[in-house]
Amino acid sequence: MPTIEPLDATTITYDGWEYRTMMQTEFSSSDLTCHPNSEANALAMPDGYEVAPDDDDIIDSIVATFPWETHVTVLYSPSGLCSGYPAYGTAAFYPGEIWGDSQAKARITSDGRWWTPWTCYQILIRRSVSTAPSTTPAPTYVAPDDSCADDYTGTNDSLPLGRVRRHGSRPTVDVPCRWRRRVRA
Questions:
Q1: Whether this model's pTM surpasses 0.85
Q2: Which positions ≥6 away from 174 have C-beta within 8 Å?
Q3: Please, which residues have CB within 8 angstroms of residue 130's CB and are 6 or more apart in sequence?
Q4: Is 70 in contact with 31 (CB distance < 8 Å)?
Q5: Which of 33, 136, 139, 172 could lock onto 69 through a cystine, CB 3.0 to 4.6 A?
Q6: Beta 72-74 vs 139-142: how paired, if at all?
Q7: How far is CA 150 from the centre of its chain?
Q8: How far apart are CA 137 and CA 116, in angstroms?
Q9: DSSP code string of the chain
Q10: 48 and 61 Cβ atoms separated by less than 8 Å
């Protein structure tokens, strides 16, 4: 069974990966720090990192175990759940439960910077602890067209999506906007 090892106040290792938030918040702090919630203040993805995947083990071991200075962390869902970027409660707030409606909880600008449409979300990112350089370029995730961000106008992000536990039935969301994976040339 993999163990969690802290590297510093903002980064932990687990199962061959380093995890931290894009803003490098302290994983054990319950103070609230908000990711920029506007495109104008979006942040660049650090070199070698990717958004952590929407995986039950990561949710249980990394997201729900620590507060990360936020209520919810955003992950990447290759199945398209929440338009590709669902959010889950941290140890400080409904641990491990999916949060909000079907809208993407993270967005990407045309130049590849990241932001969250709501305050006090954090984007969980990871990179391999391996020192060998990757031979495959890191993927970027882009919306199919410019209308994607306008597909949803709802603001009901104040209640968990039925408070569904990850260990029970997984919610399925049919959304018109899907994110696709594009490998940089």
A1: no
A2: none
A3: 16
A4: no
A5: 33
A6: unpaired
A7: 20
A8: 25
A9: ---EEESSSS-EEETTEEEEETT---TT--S--PPP-SGGG-EEPPTT-EEPB--HHHIIIIITT--TTSSEEE-B-TT-GGGG--EEE-TTSSBT-EES-SS-S-EE-TTSEEE-SSTTEEEEEEEES--SPPSSPPEEEE-SSGGGGGS------SSBSTT--TTSPPP----S---EEEE--
A10: no
> What is residue 138's predicted lDDT score, i.e. its pLDDT?
46
Distance CA 92, CA 87 (A): 14
Q: How many C-beta atoms lie closer than 10 Å to residue 53's C-beta?
A: 15
At 125, list the tokens: 């990112």
Burial of 115 (0-12, 13-18, 19+ CB in 10 A): buried
